[in-house]
Specification:
340 residues, eight-stranded parallel sheet, alpha/beta, two-stranded antiparallel ribbon, single chain, 15% strand
Length: 340
């Protein structure tokens, strides 16, 4: 099994602070994540002045500000992006960010970002998807709030550009429930498998639930990418902190995922190396139930099946009975083929 790609989603949990953003990078590195991801946008291009906030944003922030006012505080400047990109490179972790407008796409591409992540909210944004596709880089597409037909359209728009350019980078689809936090009963992990079969693409899961069991279960169902929001402290002010994991939880999730992917294995049913020794101990052999004299005919009363399994296996019992003992066999001795 290929190694699961784990994205620590810092998102906007830096609260507009470069210092906090770097601490989130440190958390991702320490936990063993493969990538740390932010969000790149220009607030005034993302929302109108009268755009309302999602219910979870109102609940999680506890303020009366507009969505524009909220996002203006969370916007990272180009200079901050450059510093974060360099910091991730020095920290030996992949830098990723989700762009929400075309200039943000250009900024990230010029930085040298190698994988583009598309937000669930942008799945119907054909111009943005095709602008990202024009950068000729792999795409991870979140599919929260989407019908499968909408996912199909988005894939088609991306491939339309790639076909014109005669290139074939990789698309990965992330099943997602766009609620913060998401209810466990809404997870519908089977939809991930549905997309895998329908589109024959790599799939994964972008998790907004509380706890760690849902992304771990997604791995067992075939997810090759896991994305999870991270925060320094769930009690911090901001829209996404409450639906994020703290540093110790991220580390636990990464460790659990690595153990699960090891446990999935290659799929070949065969004994492990450690089982070979155990097999001889717990399996059984055909054993003399009494002293058997040389020349005596062996019958069912002469033999019994006991551990260990180092002699003739019980499956051959029909080949043992009515044979003649070639040697004297002591009671409780393991019978060998040379004895009969």
């Amino acid at each position: 099994m290929a190694k699961v790609f784990i994205i620590a989603e810092a998102g906007v949990n830096h609260n507009g602070s470069l210092e906090i953003a770097k601490k989130l990078v440190d958390v991702a590195v320490s936990a063993g994540a493969d990538a740390v991801k932010f969000q790149t946008f220009m607030a005034d291009r993302l929302v109108t002045a009268v755009a309302s906030r999602a219910e979870y944003q109102i609940v999680n922030t506890g303020t009366n500000e507009s969505q524009l006012e909220m996002l203006e505080k969370l916007e990272l400047s180009p200079e901050m992006h450059r510093e974060l990109f360099s910091y991730c490179k020095r920290s030996k972790i992949i830098f990723m960010s989700t762009p929400f407008d075309e200039p943000s796409v250009d900024l990230l591409d010029n930085l040298g970002m190698q994988i583009f992540k598309i937000s669930s909210g942008e799945i119907t944004n054909k111009p943005l998807l095709q602008h990202i596709a024009s950068k000729k880089k792999p795409i991870i597409l979140s599919t929260g709030m989407s019908f499968i037909g909408e996912v199909e359209k988005a894939i088609g728009w991306i491939n339309e550009i790639w076909n014109k350019l005669n290139i074939n980078p990789k698309i990965t689809l992330l099943h997602c429930v766009s609620d913060y936090p998401a209810n466990v009963e809404d997870s519908n992990l089977a939809a991930m498998k549905t997309m895998e079969v329908a589109f024959r693409l790599t799939v994964g899961y972008s998790d907004h639930s509380c706890g760690l069991e849902i992304p771990i279960a997604a791995i067992a169902l075939g997810a090759k990418v896991i994305e999870k929001h991270i925060t320094l402290d769930r009690n911090m002010q901001g829209p996404d902190h409450m639906a994020s994991v703290e540093p110790y939880e991220l580390e636990s999730m990464v460790n659990a995922i690595r153990n699960v992917e090891k446990a999935i294995g290659c799929g070949i049913k065969r004994p492990t190396i450690s089982e070979v020794v155990t097999r001889d101990i717990v399996r059984k052999s055909i054993v003399a139930a009494k002293d058997i004299k040389k020349g005596e005919t062996i019958d069912l009363n002469s033999i019994v099946v006991k551990r260990p399994g180092t002699g003739i296996a019980p499956e051959f019992i029909d080949k043992i009975i009515i044979r003649t003992a070639m040697n004297h066999i002591d009671k409780d001795a393991i019978i060998s083929w040379n004895d009969i």
